[in-house]
Design goal:
With 391 residues, the chain is α/β, with parallel strands linked by helices. Helices cover 40% and strands 14% of the residues. It has a five-stranded parallel β-sheet, sandwiched between helices. α1 crosses α3, α4 runs parallel beside α5 and α12 crosses α13. It is globular.
């Protein structure tokens, strides 16, 4: 590599690490990564806009002999990950932070070789679609892969509204709902704003334009690692996201997707799987049987994004989506569905059955707890917004 390229890499890294200093708040994953044994490389995957780049730069700032670069840099187009890292190692860098690593072909094989040579430690970020178990290189025992989910309600309040709120376990949320409601009740007023513009951390001006551009890149670029992406595939992916956004829970199944998109049921199943791996859809399985179809939810704030196409979203779906988007990252969750005519609670989390609904929601289904939209707590009723403090 030419000296001018190396000089530019070093200069850019210093500039970006200085820029990252203005981000005082850190995502929850920062501390988890800091605790990982230095014998391992670390991968951070996640959808665009959740803060992977800032997280890498924050980690680099607190690590000695570190340098950051993005794998999609035009300067680095002629070079492999291996070549770039070896050059940086030769001049003394011991900790290499690489953004967008999936943009380089053979990145996984390069990481395997670098790990086996034991000259540097690499911490990298990539698409939600990255899968080190099936990437063709034996990275599973060399790399700890962490997923950075959309910012939680708690993190969004800390980053965007200037709070300093702690994480709260689901046990404490259920056990101490009344006390927590009294302590944090003022924050409920931000719940709908979070559902509209939370989760991803784009600036206020041009928020939805940035989100739309990211969606297109996820479908056209990130999902290309899963299968060939053409114009019809892109169109079908957007149609499916729109279909979920317009629907109430349980209204979308594989048969309906196949019918609406004019594709086979098998293709519908594959498309749902692809969007799940890309981080745009959550599949919640049935508690009783894996043969039942999953319930499908969008990641925040996609439902409100698609509402701009000219329809009103189902508020029940918004509530369930908020609940699922927070619980699914920390706990096992499945949905309950009884036989025809039988009423059941919505979800099972660990050993608890939980119903999600509005402030007038009854306990007809006999759940252990009702997660209610509002500020009512006590007698098994838990304000829904408190689940946003789980991570």
């Amino acid at each position: 590599m030419e000296e001018r390229i190396i000089t530019s890499l070093i200069s850019t890294s210093k500039r970006l690490m200085a820029w990252a200093e203005k981000f005082k708040k850190k995502r929850f994953l920062f501390q988890e990564i800091k605790k990982i044994n230095e014998e391992y490389y670390v991968g951070i995957k996640g959808i665009r806009g959740v803060g992977k780049t800032v997280l890498l730069l924050q980690l680099a700032r607190e690590t000695e002999d570190s340098i950051y670069f993005s794998a999609d840099s035009t300067l680095l187009k002629p070079f492999s990950i291996y070549e770039v890292v070896k050059t940086l190692a030769e001049i003394g860098y011991k900790n290499i932070f690489i953004d967008e690593i999936h943009r380089k072909p053979e990145w996984a094989q390069d990481l395997k070789t670098l790990y086996d040579e034991h000259e540097v430690r690499v911490i990298f970020s990539g698409s939600s679609a990255i899968d080190i178990v099936h990437c063709g290189a034996d990275l599973s025992r060399r790399v700890v892969l962490k997923e950075l989910p959309p910012a939680s309600f708690r993190e969004w309040l800390n980053i965007k509204k200037g709070y300093n709120l702690p994480m709260i376990s689901i046990e404490d949320i259920l056990d101490k709902a009344f006390n927590l409601m009294n302590k944090y009740g003022e924050l409920h007023k931000y719940w709908m704003e979070y559902m509209e513009k939370g989760g991803v951390l784009y600036p206020e001006g041009g928020f939805y334009e940035a989100l739309e551009n990211s969606l297109r890149k996820v479908i056209l670029e990130d999902m290309a690692s899963l299968r060939d992406v053409d114009v019809k595939y892109e169109t079908d992916a957007f149609k499916l996201l729109l279909l979920i956004a317009k629907s109430a829970p349980f209204e979308v199944n594989y048969s309906k997707i196949a019918r609406e998109l004019e594709i086979s049921k098998g293709a519908a199943i594959r498309l749902v799987e692809d969007l799940s791996k890309a981080g745009l859809v959550h599949q919640v399985i049935a508690c009783e049987s894996i043969r039942k179809e999953p319930k499908l939810y969008l990641t925040v704030p996609l439902r409100k994004f698609f509402e701009r196409k000219g329809f009103s979203v189902d508020v029940g779906a918004l509530r369930e989506e908020f609940f699922v988007n927070h619980v699914i990252w920390r706990y096992n969750i499945c949905y309950l569905k009884g036989n025809r005519g039988e009423k059941t609670s919505d979800f099972k989390v660990k050993d608890w059955t939980i119903e999600v609904g509005g402030k007038g929601k009854s306990r007809y289904q006999r759940p252990d707890y009702v997660a209610v939209d509002g500020l009512i707590a006590g007698k098994g009723r838990v304000p829904l917004f408190l689940f946003g403090f789980i991570y």
